[in-house]
Write a structure and sequence with these properties.
The structure holds two protein chains of two kinds.
Chain A: H1 4-17, H2 21-41, H3 46-76
Helix pairs in contact in A: 1-3, 2-3
Chain B: H1 2-7, H2 15-32, E1 46-54, E2 57-62, H3 63-86, H4 95-115, H5 119-138, E3 149-153, E4 162-165, E5 171-174, H6 177-185, H7 191-194, E6 197-201, H8 210-232, H9 252-295, H10 300-331
Antiparallel strand pairs in B: 1-2, 3-6, 4-5
Helix pairs in contact in B: 3-5, 4-5, 5-8, 5-10, 8-9, 8-10, 9-10
Chain lengths: ~80, ~350
């Protein structure tokens, strides 16, 4: 039974680590919103905008991925 | 248009009955042997012992190495098929060679739009990374990956499962309450015998190994530096050690120098973000597939396999495209205009 509080703390910690995904979600939303508006205004440069949009999404997503890696480390590596 | 619409009535296709048969078989299989959530482990498992040593450490063949070799064999087979299809120059590319040709054409146009005259140096790196990461990610979708392997006794604090004989010499693991209870009762004296068994899969997706993605990221970043030196020569180093205005401009020279050092740190941050992005996405995807397969074993998994299909594609394209854009940024001379 003495291990259960450790497990609970690990689960809470992993959940708290994933809070950082909020920022990435908002960031990706802003990026795609701007890109879609630009594409609607000027459809001829869709290809360039799409490339830069995917790059921006990848950079914004990286932050969420760091949170995910930290959460996975807490869940599966720390204390096992 | 009207002629094709007339033909679309009920057809006795073959594939839909295969799908239906697999769904029914899957339903009965899930009833007979309920799927259990596998033990999720971050480092790759050792499958074969080679007996060799590497810097004093024993060298094992891990299951991610096997997955990488399997994907490499698939890539080579695709290359042979395309080579055979291109022997006949009159024939239109169709099937897998047509698909790869379309993909490569898209990638080439993308590179040409970004890199300009350096396309012939950047495109091979870009296409190689994209195609190989694509196949490496998609090995996740092959049935039997992550689920067929050696049966090994669990040790440590990990709870294993009961084994049950399926065939002569082939076992499956089943959920059993008695194993857990027995483990709790005499955990101290004989925990190895009562701890149950775990599956060590033969093949686990290569991208779920941090060593693998880190190696790939190092290759990509080294290619970026190579491209910079090829395009600019030794002048490329002034991007990082910007001594041009250090003594001529009073305060902003020092700031420029500090910005150059930050760029140098940014190159190392690129390695981290490359490797963590691929690893995090694909590992989280395989954990998602484990959990969904345990919770809803019959139909719902297909939707998540489709999701993983797209995640693998997008991550391969993002990895390749970031490499391409960094390489074309490295070819641009930095300090000419200011």
């Amino acid at each position: 039974m003495e291990g259960s509080i450790v497990i609970a703390a690990k689960l809470i910690g992993a959940g708290l680590a994933m809070i950082g995904a909020i920022g990435a979600g908002a960031g990706i939303g802003i990026v795609v919103s701007g890109a879609v508006q630009a594409m609607g205004r000027n459809p001829d440069v869709t290809g360039t905008i799409q490339t830069n949009m995917i790059l921006g999404i990848a950079f914004a997503e990286a932050v969420a991925i760091y949170c995910l890696v930290v959460a996975l480390l807490i869940l599966f590596v720390v204390g096992n | 248009m009207e002629q094709t619409e007339k033909k679309t009535g009920w057809r006795w296709g073959v594939h839909r009955w295969w799908v239906l048969a697999f769904i029914i078989i899957g339903f009965y299989a899930a009833k007979a042997y309920p799927p259990i959530q596998p033990h999720i482990q971050l480092p790759a498992e050792n499958v074969f012992e080679t007996g060799l040593t590497f810097f004093g450490q024993p060298f094992y063949i891990t299951n991610t190495i096997l997955a990488m070799l399997l994907a490499d064999v698939i890539i080579i087979l695709i290359a042979i098929a395309i080579k055979r299809a291109s022997m006949n120059p009159d024939a239109l590319p169709k099937g897998i060679s047509g698909a790869v040709e379309g993909l490569l054409e898209g990638l080439y146009n993308l590179t040409e739009g970004t890199a300009g005259k350096w396309t012939k140096f950047i495109f091979p790196v870009f296409a190689t990374i994209t195609l190989s990461v694509l196949v490496w990610n998609w090995t996740e979708l092959i049935p039997g990956v992550d689920s067929i392997g050696w049966l090994e006794p669990a040790h440590g604090e990990v709870h294993g499962f009961e084994k049950e004989e399926l065939w002569s010499g082939f076992y499956t693991i089943v959920e059993s309450d008695e194993a857990v209870v027995a483990d709790d009762v005499h955990a101290e004296d004989s925990h190895e015998a009562s701890n149950g068994y775990l599956i060590v899969p033969f093949i686990r997706v290569a991208s779920t190994d941090l060593n693998f993605t880190l190696a790939l990221a190092v290759i990509a970043v080294v290619a970026v530096q190579w491209m910079g030196f090829k395009a600019l020569g030794p002048k490329y180093l002034t991007k990082f050690f910007n001594t041009k205005t250090l003594f001529s401009v009073p305060i902003f020279g020092v700031i420029d120098f500090a910005v150059g050092l930050l760029e140098l740190i940014g190159e190392f941050a690129k390695i981290l973000s490359f490797s963590f992005r691929l690893f995090g996405n694909i590992f989280a995807g395989s954990v998602l597939l484990f959990v969904i397969g345990t919770l809803v074993p019959v139909v719902a998994q297909s939707a998540f396999l489709m999701l993983e299909f797209f995640v693998g594609l997008i991550q391969a394209i993002v990895f390749g495209m970031l490499t391409m854009v960094f390489m074309s940024q490295a070819t641009e001379s930095h300090g000419d205009d200011h």
